[in-house]
From TrEMBL:
Pfam families: Methyltransf_11 (PF08241). Transmembrane segments: none annotated. This is Methyltransferase domain-containing protein. GO terms for biological process: methylation. Keywords: Methyltransferase, Transferase. Residues 59-154 form the Methyltransferase type domain. It comes from Rhizobium beringeri. Gene3D superfamilies: Vaccinia Virus protein VP39 (3.40.50.150).
Amino acid sequence: MNSMNTNYSIRDEIRDFWSERAATFDQSVGHEIFSEAERKGWQRLIRKHLGEGQGRAALDLACGTAVISHLMHGAGFAVTGLDWSDAMLAQARAKAKKRGTDIRFVSGDAENTMEPRESYDVITNRHLVWTLVDPASAFKEWFAVLKPGGKVLILDGNMGKENWVKGLQKFWTKVTGKPAASHMTPEMMARHQKIRSRVHFSTQMPAEAVVDLLRQAGFTDIVVDRKLADIHWAQARKMPFLRGLERMVQDRFAICARKPG
């Protein structure tokens, strides 16, 4: 089988999946922000690792509907949001127009951005890394796009890791015949799992594995931050009980790394 064709097939499927979810994406807790407490948690995290924007150039990869892009803009960064889904970008542009922000949006592939070399001070992304077909190449691309001394901030998690709440959810489904509450239909969940089975991190994505690939790409001063309880608690309070409980125990993390220079 031709690996390039396989890769393009996976990427196309990823793009189409999120394009179909674009119209309702912001309705889900964990996507859009639904409380001031959560917003303050994200602002704290961004400033902790990236400092104040002060007009520095930031590239928000796989920006979706621009939730992180707006947080970065609010911190004073000059933000470019990049996404491969035109449907997501349409939502992002509409939101930016409504809020009166000057965020720039471009269509592009997070694994091959086509952005100028050494042109950004900061790169951000949320829930992107697990979808990458070739994260090693993607991290090299991000390294090239960053200015010397620039930083990447990855917001993600090891969602495939088992925890006791997942066991409780399975028990609930077995006893009641009802699946745990989800923001996706069973059909969309099946497509999501099909995609996941074909990407690089097809089962688990421990932070340590991401760190190793970042280091191989040339990044240094890599920090794994799991102190996200304020964000997760704010999200959990807006979720059904079992989903909120799972959010509190999942292995979610922020990884910040620097390009030497």
